[in-house]
Amino acid sequence: MDAKELLKKVRKIEIKTRGLSQNIFAGEYHSAFKGRGVIFSEVREYQPGDDVRDIDWNVTARHNKPYVKVYEEERELTLMLLIDVSRSEDFGAVGVEKKEMMAEIAATLAFSSLQNNDKVGVIFFSDKIEKFIPPKKGKKHILLIIREIIDFQPESHGTDISVALEFLTNAIKKRATSFLLSDFIDGHDYAHSMLMANKKHELTAIQVYDERDSRLPNVGLIHAADLESGVVRWIDTSSKRIRKAYEKTWYDRQQTLSSAVMKSGVELASVRTDEDYVKALLAVFRRKATR
User: Which residue, of 61, 88, 117, 226, is most buried by count of CB atoms within 10 Å of its CB?
Assistant: First the structure.
């Protein structure tokens, strides 16, 4: 992709996702992801109804009348985006490519965090850590992240979600609001890594998948390639047995994901590439806000 085309794509995603974050997600994001606690702000004179436990006795003694400490929510957060860049994310048979939708979701989350002056960092992963962008603030940083998401070329083609989760757990010292974006086409067991990551950080899993990931249409003989392994074969989609086996593979993978999020307490949103991701994100935010 040349520089001009890349800039055009970044600008298009910025316009769409920044509008969403400002008009739809800003308040929901703030409510769902609160700060780490409260910090001291100032002292003021005691007013009827104030909690006597907040009285600052040193200031009260100096001024010979009661003063209370005032606290405010510590809003600054770190948002970490864990983005699957394996070759299966290039797939897009129904709707947009998975990586395109993931770029939009990541950008929406990043711009929502910008409204709250939070830091944003990214972990790009395949079956290894492809790139780590440390958390920083500001629009310029977010535009850099969007550009990387759109144009990133991984060295490896496979997927190992545990690698990303373990890196998050070890590399990010302070508790962070974290989103794992993947199609979860992963033959490894990531349940324990997910549990450990969610104990240290607030983790949300967002599955982005294509309808063709879950079922094969009956269109006769097709030439199909596994994007991650590179294996190419002919498949007879008119065979009911083959279609059933394909659906069973999808079902088993979904059961693995459901079991992992249930054991770890991670919030999960699943979005198909021909669906609107806004509803799914809003639902996650609102569930978190009511906890």
Answer: 88
For the chain, the residue count is: 291
Using DSSP, state whether 249 is helix, strand or coil: helix
Q: Pick the range with the lowest mean pLDDT from 178-192, 218-232, 250-264.
A: 218-232
Please list, in sequence order, all residues whose beta carbon lies within 8 angstroms of the beta carbon of residue 185, skipping any fewer than 6 positions away.
Answer: 86, 88, 159, 213, 228, 253
Q: Quick check: helix, strand or coil at residue 14?
A: helix
Interhelix angle 3-20/98-114, rounded to 10 degrees, is: 60
Q: Return d(Cα 274, Cα 137) in angstroms, integer.
A: 32
Give residue 2's pLDDT. Answer: 65
Q: Would strands 78-84 and 119-125 be described as parallel, antiparallel, or unpaired?
A: parallel
Angle at 178 between CA 172 and CA 181, to 5 degrees: 120
Q: What is the pLDDT of residue 215?
A: 79
pLDDT digits (tens, 9 = 90+) for 49-72: 788 888 888 888 988 999 888 755
Cα–Cα dist 174/193, whole Å: 17
Cβ pair 289, 32 in contact under 8 A: yes
pLDDT number for residue 207: 96
pLDDT of residue 201: 93
Residue found under tokens 């994310």: 89
Scored b (16 or more CB within 10 A) or e, 148-180 reads: bbbeeebebbbbbbbbbbbbbbeebeeebbbbb
DSSP state for residue 23 in the 8-state scheme = I
Structure tokens at 25: 């997600």
Q: Give me the residue label for tokens 């864990």.
A: 82
Q: Which amino acid is at 273?
A: T
- d(C-alpha 26, C-alpha 17), whole Å: 12
